[in-house]
């Protein structure tokens, strides 16, 4: 079960091979069993996640499923979450509970996703190893003596360890791409302005961008489909049409030219 992709889990939920409550409980048990060695989560939202899963099963039963209904997703602890603490891996925010959701969080909720927890990171996203966290370092699940990369190392490690089928990250100078590479998963930094930064605690506002992390390119496309889109609350958000990223994966790539400096 734990090696199934988001796409496969969507099919299992649609065919009622498994319920969202069963799926969510399964991943919660994996977190309890394995995350003490990895430390990929700062907060696990067990009660809220199971409640969301119950509502997801009802929606599936009534035929009201949306893009990610019933799928457990981990959120990097840099996104504000109403009613759930948002720490940015810092001692000074260790008890901060935001009064609102980041736009990215709202979009996942609207799509029916289950927020299973908030993942560890370098404090205020300032790092590339996920060792600089008030809540302790995150370890690479393939070799716990190694770093998972950062600053989105908690999301990368949780996905690589199959504690969750997908997660969000943020990238300023490699903070999605580098830990994705180090943990052997797929991560994407979207073009700046493609994903709303509203409610995402800033590191460098002119470079920060939220993005998806998952097992496969198809799964990251599924997550980006939910995350992307114009947000009037973010003045750097680009008001252009959101493409069908999943369908685009079936399009043969066009020839490209890559330029390299001669020096």
Explain what you see.
This protein has helices at 6-14, 20-38, 46-62, 103-110, 153-160, 177-183, 217-227, 245-248, and strands at residues 41-44, 72-76, 114-119, 166-171, 186-187, 209-214. With 263 residues, the protein is of the alpha+beta class. It has a single domain, classed as Amidase signature (AS) enzymes (Alpha-Beta Complex), CATH 3.90.1300.10. It is globular and about 60 Å long.
Task: Give keywords.
single chain; alpha+beta; Amidase signature (AS) enzymes; three-stranded antiparallel β-sheet; 8 helices; 6 strands; 11% strand; globular
Summed up:
This protein is α+β, with helices and mostly antiparallel strands.
Topology:
Elements: H1 6-14, H2 20-38, E1 41-44, H3 46-62, E2 72-76, H4 103-110, E3 114-119, H5 153-160, E4 166-171, H6 177-183, E5 186-187, E6 209-214, H7 217-227, H8 245-248
Parallel strand pairs: 2-3
Antiparallel strand pairs: 1-3, 4-6, 5-6
Helix pairs in contact: 2-3, 5-6
Mean pLDDT: 97
Give a short account of the largest sheet. 3 strands, mixed
Helical segment count = 8
Instruction: Give the class-level CATH name.
Output: Alpha Beta
Strand content: 5-15%
- CATH level-3 fold name: Amidase signature (AS) enzymes
Separation, N- and C-terminal Cα atoms = 50 Å
